[in-house]
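thread from #wetlab-drylab

HS: before we spend reagent money on co-crystallization trials with adenosine monophosphate, can we at least see a predicted complex? here's what I'd submit
DV: go for it
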Amino acid sequence: MRLIERPEEMRAWVMDRHGRGVTVGLVPTMGALHEGHLSLMRAAVQENGTAVASIFVNPTQFGPDEDYERYPRAFEADCQKAEAEGIAAIYAPDARTMYPLEHSTYVEEEALSRGLCGRSRPGHFRGVTTVVAKLFNAVLPTRAYFGQKDAQQCAVIRRMARDLDFGVEIIELPIVREADGLALSSRNQYLSPEERQEALGIHRGLRAAEALLKEGARDAATVVQAVKDEMGGLRIDYVELLDAHTLEPLATARGTVLLAVAAWAGGTRLIDNLKTQVI
Ligand code: AMP
């Protein structure tokens, strides 16, 4: 497995593959890899001639009071895990390489990025779209793989890729969970045993809402309340029922809906969601 730290080297490596007609899958990550990341890598390896994973803790997507400095970093272990999945190259520029002095150009999506996490984390999605655009320009992937865990991020990136003619196919894969339902996240490492127990309320809430929708409930307020009822102990940021494609809030569930949750367990902000079709 190759370790590549500079965009021009990354592009030369990938252009050689494209020249031979090899398709390229990209899995962007911030490292501290877990099964969620590895499920994306498995798909990227399977569905393409070659697969690249990027590992970059992106400073521009963290707010000034967020956890950029203490975000978990495990580079050596990450490389071993990626190699075991068949990843051919890791792209891991340092922050100075990604954002050279006097970097002053950003990519901003102006509709889907406004609600949910965009409301609570101003500037977050601008950081995400900027870094993903730069990763697409360096890696020139045929397909890029993202997790439904960050459903709003997937929607924003799909829109950006279309709007800016990246010609990259965006693939969204299901949420990988612990046996007890907690969605895997690099930030779960921050949780104390008590907080981890409280965090399970998110998944319980989503399951309760799913059952209600299956039974025919369509009133958004009722469905949202069912989630909140299971979330005692957590500080709720948002629980919203939205159209999964437009991310417009719904009063009545219809079509493909996204039930999105963000909440704090102690000092750790967690997100999770459920996507389902209602008729
Ligand atoms: P991150 O390293 O947190 O930026 O995540 C990198 C990619 O992995 C993103 O596309 C995430 O949506 C995805 N991801 C994170 N957690 C999970 C999970 N539990 N299941 C599936 N994908 C995930």
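DV: The domain at 2-173 is CATH 3.40.50.620 (Rossmann fold).
HS: ok that's useful, forwarding to the group
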